[in-house]
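Workshop exercise sheet. Pairs work together: one partner reads the sequence aloud, the other fills in the structure field after running the prediction. Swap roles for the next sheet.
Pair: D.N. / O.F.
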Amino acid sequence: MAKVKLTKNELKKQKDQLKRFRRYLPTLQLKKQQLLMEIRHIEAQRDQKRREQEEFRRGLESWIAVFGEDWDLSPYVVIEKIRTGEGNIAGVDIPLFQGVDFRSVTYDLVETPLWIDAGVRALKTMITYDIQVEILEEQVRLLAEELRITTQRVNLFEKIKIPETRENIRRINIYLGDQQTAAVVRGKIAKKKLVGAAS
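Structure field:
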């Protein structure tokens, strides 16, 4: 605890500080609650996307089993651009998924298997799910970091700053009260001496 001056000016400063801390603390607590709710909401969205992706993958398994050919689809599915926007939750900038642009790749219809179109579409869908989940995880990471910082600030105010300031105010009040009492006693003693000297 820092050493405080035991003066009326310091008492006013400490009271003003306490007022500021008490005014700021509810804002921090509200931000903490909002971040927690948003993290839960985004985690639910992420889990939903994972379930959708798994469901889509299961739907593909029966379809893929029909084809015995081992064909690499990666040359036909090239990501050109991942489109993201920016959102803001409780003062935190987060990326928002807007879409994926794939390069248009042409292929020889005679050389490639008949199922190539469906395979390319399925692979694009799986890649899109992966990117959506990745962006949702990034949102959770950014919000969790802000939550950690906000929680530290809430704890700083609740457990350190406010109790420390209250204790400083109490100490200054006691000291000033003692000084005032001593001044009154000195005044009475001086008055007694004056009255005694006059008589």
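Discussion prompt: The radius of gyration is 35 Å. What would you look at next?
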